[in-house]
Amino acid sequence: MLMQTPINFKRKIIASAIASYALAGFTGAAMAQDNGLEEVIVTGIKGSLQRAMDIKREAVGVVDAISAEDIGKMPDSNLAESLQRIPGVSIDRVNGEGSKVTVRGLGSGYNLVTLNSRQMPASSFGTSRSFEFSNLASEGISGVEVFKSGRADVQSGGMGALINILTPRPLSSPGLKAVVSAKAVSDQSSVIEEGITPEISGLFSNTFADDKIGVSLTGSYQDRNSGNRQSQVSGWFTHAADKPIGDWDDLPSSYTDVPVNRSRSLPSEIMYRVNEVNRKRTNAQLTIQYQPVERLTVTADYLYVNQEREENNFGTGLWFTRPNDGSLEIEWSNTNPAYPLSYTEVAKTKELNYVINHNQAKSDLKSAGLNVKWEATDNLVVEFDAHNSDSYSGPNGKWGGNNQFHFGIIDDYKVSVDFTKKYPLMQFEYADGRDDVVPDVSRMQLTNNIFRVQDQDSGVDEYQLKGTYTFDDSFIDNIKAGVGTNEITNKYYFLGLQQQNQGTWGGVQGKNGIGDIPQYYWIVDRLTNYFDNKEFSSPYFQNTIVRANWDELLDVSARLYGSDTGPCPKAYCTTRDNTRANDGLNDDLTIETTDFAYLQFGFKPEIAGMPANVAVGVRYETTDVESSQYVSAYLPLANWEGGNEYNLTPAGSEYGFSTGSYSKTLPNLDFDIALTDDIKARASVSKTIARADFADLRGGFNWNAAPRSSEVTGSSGNPNLKPMESTNFDISAEWYYSDSSYVSLGYFKKDVADFIGGSAPEEGSTADLPGGISEPFRTPFGGARWNEALAALGGTATPPQISEWIRANRPEWVNEKGHIPAVAGDPILNYEISRPINNEDASIDGIEIAWQHTFGESGFGFQANATLVDSDTKFDNASTGAQFAVYGLSDSANFIGFYDKDGLQARLAYNWRDDFLNGYAGYTEAYGQLDASVSYDITDNLTVSMEALNLTDEDTRTYVRDTGMTSSYIETGARYNVGVRYSF
């Protein structure tokens, strides 16, 4: 086995060198021919950079990669944090840890993740197709390839990029190999659950029966405490300049200092939270290979990932009421929209709100695969691959997955907020002049509780048959062809149950009303015991907070206010009972089946004596979509209550069902030429797609139960949505001026069609509704009975007059409720449906620059890269109307300096991402993070290491429309690891 020294020269025959190189799983790297020569193998940081560079150099199309050594030595806790070092790749962070990946400005939902070229299911809460990289530890992964241009022989669905994760194969590196490593982790972002937590990983690989059987097993376990502290404004209400004031979410009608000719934004709620998270993550993979004859290899593998997450947070805040009594004082910014620099109001009989959240969730990813590779002849390789993968995310316990209690004291407060800093500072006084709001817990009352369950189960069944034929002495170098099918099943469920104080926002009124919960349950605390920001120690800051133990508060609240008793009392426990939902319900199933075939030709011409590569391919796919949604059902005959009022009669619930289909042809043309031995030019044109989120594909119709006289309105998903399609252009030049040094410069452009947005309402008859309903809705309006009444009234009459005549003269037409129901012969109601459609196009372009350099044999080197990206869509921050812009678009840069010599390896890595639009009118502020790692080989087998992430303790911040309109300010902290690794 290769020793883990920084520059470790081992002389082996070429066959052994190729086998060691193949352990990383990369198929695109150039390998020496078996001519009896010996090869120098370089390991350590320099070796991993050289392998990644070779993949980039030899790839067809635009491909970047990181190798096993690179992942193992970076101070990263998961693959997302490793991938951000690649040009054009940036990440979203959750709780200080990498979560989802954006490539060339296109977010996680536009990228496809595969494992050993097998499509992985979605693995995050909600209805997106995003893959949650925090589920995967870096250990046990041999490499990652990022395909930035389309190729016929890789799966579709990655409009931004296809990210292929590779795992080791035991027969690629015969013999016994074992590695055990352990880390002690101190996460400074946790301010309550402080201490050291463990990370343990191991790899075992061996071959038997003259290297015809191979077995490898990798595993890792991580127990991590983390946290954050947040100052947040939960929402900003923005109104156009010409909109009259007076609405509940706007300035009161008595307010006079209204900004002129500018939109205006007002905060909805301010909140301060302390959040603590415990995450336990287990990864394991078993691979078994059998090679009964030299040309036939059978590989079976199984991946298991489990993550359990418990989150507890507590906070305090206030809803702004914008009173109409003249107490509202605002100093406006000079921006458009205008927002408060300072804001003061008197809130009468208002709750100073405290909140406790308790969330328990788990996720499981299971993937079983079988691969048979047959080298039928010296020229023909045939491969069959099948896998079944399933990802589940859901609650971890009977209390649902997202639960909270709100409690507080009702009083008259004067609140002032300073919005001039990067975080809002709130000051409280009692309206009667008391200047320190120290809560009287004897007056504390429960005001609201919310229990929610949410889960997503996404599965992939995929079968592929592919082959490669390599020609001898032909103008065609190779032909690649394949066929296959995959079926994606996505189930999403959400049920919310909210008890608003047993019918009032004024507080739960139990047997004794205020003070029902004993005082000793409440803990009076200070926010400055948790926040690092020194300005929160200001005497003008509302510092006092009340919190409680979740389990104790749940127990006493359920006994006092629960509508029943037992292990899961109603209103304090969410179960999968659709009839109980009052705070939202989704119960959806989508099945998406794709059949595909591809053909790609490879050529290796010489142009003016310069060797070149050309790949021309096409991929053809057909996709069928079936989607259902749990919706309210109604009888087909509407009721006329009288006057202009109509209603549909509820008939329980049903699963509405719709279907759709589409086909796509995806060509690609890749060209590269070696202008010299060291300089390569590259160009690529391709088409790639990204499929719609599952939420947009929902079947069924949600109807407005109170239709108009001749028309019923509603909303629906759209299983007939086409995928978004990108035409990609790439051109680049690469100079490989030494074994592990290069410079590259590239330009890319993506012309994207069919982005998904809202439609203008579709209209028609419910008898011809696309997707269908069991029976069309009918209305009494304009029917035979209507016309009889109208004739009796002389031919002209209003609807109220007609209904009065029917009640007086035709009582047999009126039911026991006093309504006039439609009958079978009455006119059919028309419909007006809003649904998502393909309606937007956008163009994205950018420049990628990368420079990798090693300073000879000194051991020093660096990597530097930057991506500058732009789009022809811009978000108008002053507009309050619907508009389209590409989310996630931002410039990014990385710099990594390293030293690798005499057993010592050290890295200093800086990652930066500029401001970007993260949603409608919402932005994430520019963020840079400095990480470091150092390791030393005590012996050829024993290595010790230290790692530090977020060394400078950077904070993150989001805002709305203008940098002064804070949405959230989040403190996290640095993370330190000390580790040991032993190789057998």
Automatic annotation (TrEMBL):
The keyword Membrane applies. InterPro entries: Beta-barrel_TonB (IPR000531), Beta-barrel_TonB_sf (IPR036942), Plug_dom (IPR012910), Plug_dom_sf (IPR037066), TonB_rcpt_bac (IPR010104). GO terms for cellular component: cell outer membrane. SUPFAM superfamilies: Porins. Keywords: Cell outer membrane, Membrane, Signal, TonB box. It is found in: Cell outer membrane. It comes from the Bacteria. Residues 1-32 form the signal peptide. Residues 56-159 form the TonB-dependent receptor plug domain. Residues 443-951 form the TonB-dependent receptor-like beta-barrel domain. Belongs to the TonB-dependent receptor family. NCBIfam families: TonB-Xanth-Caul. This is TonB-dependent receptor. It comes from Cellvibrio mixtus.
